[in-house]
Amino acid sequence: MEPKSAHLAPQHCELVRDVEEAGTPVRYTLSVDWGLCSQRHQLRIDICRAQRDPYGHGWRHEGRSRCPELLKRLWPEHEGVMRFHLWGLSGGLHYLANTVYLAGTRDCFGWEPGEQRRAKESGKLLWATERDKVFRIIESDTHPGPLELAYEPLLVEKPMTWGPNKGLAVGDKQMDADGNHLWHIRGTGLPVVRSVAQPAPMVLPVQPYLGVGKDRELVTARLIANWPEATDAELSVTAEQLEAALKARLPKLLWELKAVVESFGLTY
User: Fold this and answer.
1) SS3 call for 27
2) Residue 41 · residue 25 · CB < 8 Å
3) 10 Å Cβ neighbour count for 220?
4) What whole-number distance in Å separates Cα of residue 257 and Cα of residue 91?
5) 20 or 160: whose pLDDT is higher?
6) What own/partner pairs with CB < 8 Å and gap ≥ 24 does 45-48 have?
7) Are 75 and 17 in contact (CB under 8 A)?
8) DSSP label at residue 4
9) What is the pLDDT at residue 22?
10) Helix or strand run (H / E) with residue 235
11) How far, in Å, CA of 213 to CA of 111, rounded?
């Protein structure tokens, strides 16, 4: 059954606590919004701090916070609700995708450490040259062998009226003062080679283009999953197993979210 709030306008609640800090009156406001925000139904919780203006102009806003310790100190009856910040009717923001990514070892491109990458469109294996020379990526299901890059002559682009290229026509090979032609490998940024004859091609070894992976970020994964008691073993399973476990926990978490929303007098 769809929650009533799915058809209601966004709801707002504020709880105020006036305290004194270092002899100065300070007002904290717990601001709670529940409803459609940025095309998504979600709960937003902020703690706003304001200080009494010394010149009698009311309260001076000094910023926002979502510090759990501050929430516990000022509103102990709402301790723990901050973990549902930005949760909505379907769960947390990117609840499944973010938790699986953070708990896993696949990098942002989806590759495990040492796993040979594949092209996104063709699905072919990827091979690469060494980065410290000329970096090239090749798509091939079999080893393509060494990569040969041919030198091309630098050509005259416009008539020159001075220097060794004076009098050469557009399209002629450029020369230096010693009579050598200038050669380059297009699109590499490598230094120009000076030679009368065309230099031999540059031959580069090709190796599998491997994923770098990443470390498991289990502390952050627990926060995103709203699963503080999860063990390392429970979070370090395969992506499919973890996603199934997260889906199984979601109904209970949504009931807890409902209780949080209603604790502020709002309609879930």
Assistant:
1) strand
2) no
3) 14
4) 9
5) 20
6) 45/81, 45/82, 45/84, 45/85, 47/71, 47/74
7) yes
8) G
9) 86
10) helix 232-235
11) 6
Residue-wise pLDDT for 166-181, tens only, equals 888 898 999 998 889 9
Closest residue by Cα to residue 50 from 64, 61, 63: 61
pTM reported for the whole predicted model: 0.74
CA-wise closest residue to 11 among 48, 46, 42, 38: 42
Q: What are phi and psi of 223, to 5 degrees?
A: -65, -45
Q: Where are the domains of the chain?
A: 4-94+247-263, 152-198
**Tell me: the pLDDT tens digits for 4-53?**
777 778 999 999 999 998 888 999 999 999 988 766 789 999 999 999 88
In sequence order, which residues have a C-beta less than 8 Å from that of residue 152 and are 6 or more positions away? 183, 184, 185, 186
Q: Give 81-130 pLDDT, tens digit per residue.
A: 999 999 999 899 899 999 999 999 999 999 999 999 999 999 999 999 98
Per DSSP bridges, beta strands 126-128 and 207-208 are antiparallel
DSSP code, position 192? P
Both tokens of 110, joined, read: 């989806």
Nearest-CA neighbor of 224 among 43, 44, 99, 67? 99
* Cα–Cα distance for residue pair 239/132, rounded to 1 Å: 35
